[in-house]
Amino acid sequence: MSASQPLRIFVAGHRGMVGSAIVRQLKRQGGVQILTASRCELDLTDQAAVQAWFRESEVDLVYLAAAKVGGIHANNEYPAEFIYQNLMIEANIIHAAHLAGVQKLLFLGSSCIYPKHAEQPMREEALLTGTLEPTNEPYAIAKIAGIKLCESYNRQYGRDYRSVMPTNLYGPNDNFHPENSHVIPALLRRFHEATRQGDNEVVVWGSGKPMREFLHVDDMAAASVHVMELDTTTYQANVQPMLSHINVGTGTDCTIRELAETVAKVTRFQGKLSFDTSKPDGTARKLMDVSRLQSLGWESTIGLEDGLRDTYQWFLAHQENFRS
């Protein structure tokens, strides 16, 4: 590639919430050629197809944002799909990138990789030190495997494959399915419909006591590009060969009750909140230690209420797509 040619960057999962945000971030920065492939164009669980695509596409960098994701209900109902599809996607892309000579890749994981009872806030060193949360163990194991794939190709082949572990994400292009979505889109939709129908009450799953950290997806995209653009010396000075991932989050959390109250404010719901304690709470607290990322020069900029307002406006503009 000559100096005048832009970098050819493959964003796997470009139609998803995180992938689309990374595409927006890269377009804002400019100077690159973004490569994408929809599901009908490329089945990422098909090893031969992925390798053929890489051979033909002359990729320089990869952002691996493709994944099967969902909330507690979806993870409980479809564990086989969650572990199989995520393992296949990451293994196929990472190996195909290596075979094609791609030197730099960024793998996007999840905070669920950490043990259920990890010390809070969760540091990168907590990985593999305890038992995982049972409700999303298959998904978490797949994401841990992705980290170890990157580490292994770095160790054996000298690649520069990096991993970032985001906290709970939300934002435009999220999944607003009434049963298979994460907590923020589920609550936004539930409160929106209650406001529209004039309901007097909204029921929230669980006790409302668990504490969670939430990061707007545009912040996640900015952090991902920031980590990818760190020079090799700086990056390697802040990670270890067997501890190569970096947490991405805000460093602050709130209770699910506080989240629901903020969602009610954003959607202008005037009724009362109640909590269904027969539904699972999941882990009591999940807060990321983001000191490593901060030492590398990045901090989040989008507050929760502002981020929820942005996400709700996106939902209102696209709600015709969420009839089911």
TrEMBL record:
Pfam families: Epimerase (PF01370). It catalyses: GDP-beta-L-fucose + NADP(+) = GDP-4-dehydro-alpha-D-rhamnose + NADPH + H(+). The active site is at residue 139. Keywords: Isomerase, Multifunctional enzyme, NADP, Oxidoreductase. It is an enzyme of class 1 (oxidoreductase). Residues 9-230 form the NAD-dependent epimerase/dehydratase domain. The keyword Cytoplasm does not apply. Its EC number is 1.1.1.271. The record marks 110, 112 as: Important for catalytic activity. SUPFAM superfamilies: NAD(P)-binding Rossmann-fold domains. PANTHER family: GDP-L-FUCOSE SYNTHASE (PTHR43238). Belongs to the NAD(P)-dependent epimerase/dehydratase family. Fucose synthase subfamily. This is GDP-L-fucose synthase. The gene is fcl.
